[in-house]
Amino acid sequence: MAEPILKWVGGKRQLLSDLRSRFPIKYDQYHEPFIGGGAVFFELEPTTGSINDLNRRLITFYKIIRDFPERLIEENQRHSYEEEYYYEARERFNELHALDERSVDQEIEEASLMLYLNRTGYNGLYRENQSGGFNVPFGEHSNPDFIRKRQIRAGSVILDDIDIHNDDFTYIAERATSKDLVYFDPPYEPVSKTADFTQYQSDGFSKSDQERLRDLAVRLDKDDIYVVISNSPPVWELYDHLSDFTVSYVNAARMVNSDANNRGDVAEVIITNVPREQQQQQNLQDYT
Description:
By secondary structure, the protein is an alpha/beta fold. Helix content is 34%, strand content 14%.
């Protein structure tokens, strides 16, 4: 079992047991169209399949881990945990993002800055303003690990034969085939104003996007592809009338919230077309 390299809003470490118990016992390739921090992906360590995210910086990060792990580790060692340096690094990170074309060296620098900012910024947040600029302030941490040698090297091995995409999540309609497993972990429909994480990226994720996701899940189901979706309770009504899908409620710890008093256990839903008799349904270790 490998570890996620980044902290990420909505990470699924607390839900791994609940999710895996609903995965099919046997499947072919594994696909994750909203990779985020990759907690489920790195737990499974798939040998074939694909990952995707609309966040270009995040996808560049995973490509650099796959293709240039040692150069990334070397670049990570240049950073220092100081507030003044943090804001200089954040400014450089945004400068690189604004470039239309970047060299490999610049992509390695950007990936390294992303990891550094992720491990030293406030509460592990990734947030963009409406112009796409990363705007998370400096965070107080005790000896933050922004080099991540072991995690990067392990991640590079796992990503070696994985296709990495920077597309709309609907790419999977052409990529997945019968008996593949697709796990969707989209930006959630908010349950309150303070819990709204759909704006972690400047273009957000709307209700119509949730409906597109539902329609895609139905299409994949018709193609005999296994589908598992995690989301927040408001989306249950999009799937409740679909006879091939089941909706179940679970509790998960939510450690990132704009209101510190609202962090803690929250209800989430897991939606799947995997028949119960084909689900793993085993007792798995709880992850915290």
